[in-house]
Structures are given as structure tokens and as C-alpha cells.
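wait is this the right file?? whatever heres the structure
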């Protein structure tokens, strides 16, 4: 079988264990799921038994077709299960739905296989390692998978990643990352970064920039709330965040961002998965890319105190792992941190 997986090596994220827990949560997300234009005709004979019609099941939009949804989520979601999957088989599902939560990242060394932390099963380690799901993954790859091809600076970073992986066998992953971030602030490129040694610096400004930029998408899109957040973080003053029933101060948020929680195993696992995806190589400059990986921690420490740890990681994944133009955001933030 001449598939992508048979032509290229598959490299599995060791942090991921996944099994569907049938919660239906992902099917309730406000996502646009585009489908092949042949799908409505293929499933039309079965729609009546699913209690649907073509008009209720599919939405034509801008020359394309997407699955319809309402306040309860995708209209094919029935009893927390996908009706397409249950009644017609997995091959009738849109490609996106067949692939979720797997993520494929193409590199010259092979295809990196990981999964999205927006999935409750991934967060809860509810299943076998990805390496034991090879047949299912290869079947997905034989279809029409979405593959991330946006990494940059691959060759330039190879030796750095070897040095980093060697360093983290002796020291904390987060410490090695922090050293490299400090060095990148002072202009070092990939070939000059030393994760095994170096001084640390105060990251107060970086925390303020990260919290100011990344907490905003978690709020309602109301300009006055965003402005109030900026002012509170800048001056340390009072702040209200209605979405989280928070009444406090910008100084308190920044204090939280600097203080690790008692249990951060979920955060550490997520940060290693971001690193496995080489998400930092979506940015042109080492400083911007390393800041992206570092930013998960201060943001998590704030959101986990405002919500729950699992919800915090899901929100961060939408910002760092799936957001468009994430490289542009961190390039702009990095511009304020140059030493």
C-alpha cells in the first residue's frame, strides 16, 4: 500500500495515550467541519432514520459544504456519539472527524504523530500509546489527512535539539528551556544556544506580555475588557473578569503566573508535546519560538486558578497549538524582549 505512512517513518509522541471516552465534547465545539461535496448524496438515503434532512444536516457556504450544527453541537451528534460513525461506518465521516484528535507534522526526518489536548481522552491518558495505534493511524493517512508542513529552520535547529535532548536527561526540561530563552533574548541563534548552562533572568516583562496577549482570546471580544486587562497588568490595579467570576487585580494575576501549582504534571506533559511537535519551529526566530513554548506555563498557572486544569490546557491548546498566525503573535511579543 503506497501510503504516506509506508513511504515515511512515523515518529510517535511518547506523551500521548488516547482512547475515545465517548463524551461527545469535540462534536459540540463551534468548529466548521468542511466535507467533500459528494458526502450529502452518499448519506441522503440514511438521513431519515437519523431524524435529519439534507437541509438540517449540511450547510452550503461560499462554494463549500460544512456539517450543520445548533446549540447542542453537530446535528449528527446523537446520545454523545456520531450517528455517521454508528450507522454508516467511520469511512462516511468527514476527513477532519476521522483524523481528530491525531495531529501529523511533516519533517525531513519523518512524520511526527501526536494528538490534540482539546480532547478529553488525550488529557486523561484514556487509552493506549500512539505507537500501538499504528494500523488505525495508517488507515487515516491513506485517506486525505491534514498534515502540518509549516515548520521552518529545520536544518539549523537539528544540532540544537540533539543538545537539548541530551541536557534534559540530566536537568529539568523547564530549566533547559529557560536558559535557552534567556540566551535567545541576547541574540543567540540555534547553533549558539546552550541548554546545559547559563544564567537565568527575571521574566516579569515576558509574563506580563504573554498574559496580556493570550488571556484576551479567553475573554469575550469586548474592547473595554481587553483595555482594562492591559491597564491592570501594567499598573497592578483592580480587575473584573466576568467570564471567570474573577474580582482581583492585575498584580495577583502576574503573581499567579510566576508561582507553580502544587501539581503540574499535566502542564509538563503538554509542554513536552508542544516541543515534540516542534511548534517553536513555526516561528522564524529562536526567541519567538522558545517564547511560545515557555508561555504555556504562566498562562496555565493563571487559567488553572480561574477554571480547572483540564479546561486550562484545552484553552491553551486552542491558542498555542491550533491558532492561526501564532507565529506572528510571538514574533511581535519577542520584539519587546530583545536584550
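ok assuming it is, sequence goes like this
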Amino acid at each position: 500500500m503506497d501510503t504516506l505512512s509506508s513511504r515515511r517513518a512515523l515518529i510517535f509522541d511518547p506523551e500521548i495515550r488516547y482512547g475515545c471516552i465517548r463524551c461527545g465534547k469535540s462534536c459540540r465545539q463551534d468548529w466548521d467541519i468542511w466535507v467533500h461535496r459528494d458526502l450529502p448524496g452518499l448519506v441522503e438515503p440514511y438521513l431519515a432514520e437519523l431524524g435529519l434532512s439534507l437541509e438540517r444536516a449540511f450547510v452550503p457556504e461560499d462554494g463549500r459544504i460544512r456539517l450543520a450544527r445548533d446549540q447542542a453541537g453537530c446535528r449528527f451528534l446523537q446520545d454523545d456519539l456520531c450517528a455517521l460513525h454508528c450507522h454508516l461506518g467511520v469511512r462516511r465521516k468527514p476527513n477532519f472527524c476521522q483524523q481528530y484528535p491525531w495531529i501529523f507534522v511533516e519533517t525531513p526526518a519523518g512524520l511526527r504523530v501526536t494528538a490534540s489536548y482539546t480532547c478529553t481522552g488525550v488529557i486523561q491518558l484514556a487509552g493506549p500509546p500512539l505507537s500501538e495505534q499504528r494500523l488505525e493511524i495508517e488507515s487515516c493517512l491513506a485517506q486525505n489527512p491534514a498534515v502540518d508542513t509549516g515548520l521552518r529552520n529545520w536544518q539549523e535547529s537539528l544540532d540544537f535539539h540533539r543538545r537539548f535532548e541530551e541536557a534534559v536527561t540530566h536537568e529539568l526540561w523547564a530549566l533547559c528551556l529557560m536558559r535557552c530563552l534567556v540566551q535567545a533574548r541576547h541574540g543567540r541563534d540555534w547553533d549558539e544556544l546552550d541548554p546545559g548552562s547559563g544564567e537565568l533572568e527575571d521574566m516579569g516583562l515576558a509574563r506580563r506580555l504573554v498574559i496580556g496577549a493570550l488571556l484576551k482570546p479567553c475573554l469575550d471580544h469586548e474592547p473595554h475588557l481587553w483595555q482594562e486587562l492591559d491597564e491592570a497588568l501594567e499598573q497592578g490595579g483592580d480587575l473584573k473578569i466576568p467570564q471567570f467570576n474573577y474580582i482581583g487585580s492585575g498584580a495577583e494575576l502576574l503573581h499567579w503566573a510566576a508561582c507553580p501549582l502544587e501539581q503540574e504534571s499535566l502542564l509538563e506533559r503538554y509542554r513536552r508535546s508542544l516541543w515534540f511537535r516542534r511548534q517553536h519551529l513555526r516561528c522564524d526566530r529562536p526567541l519567538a519560538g522558545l517564547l511560545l513554548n515557555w508561555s504555556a506555563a504562566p498562562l496555565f498557572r493563571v487559567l488553572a486558578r480561574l477554571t480547572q486544569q483540564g479546561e486550562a490546557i484545552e484553552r491553551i491548546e486552542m491558542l498555542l497549538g491550533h491558532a492561526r498566525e501564532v507565529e506572528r503573535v510571538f514574533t511581535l511579543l519577542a520584539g519587546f524582549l530583545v536584550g
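Confidence is low (pLDDT under 50) at residues 1-5. so i think its the right one actually
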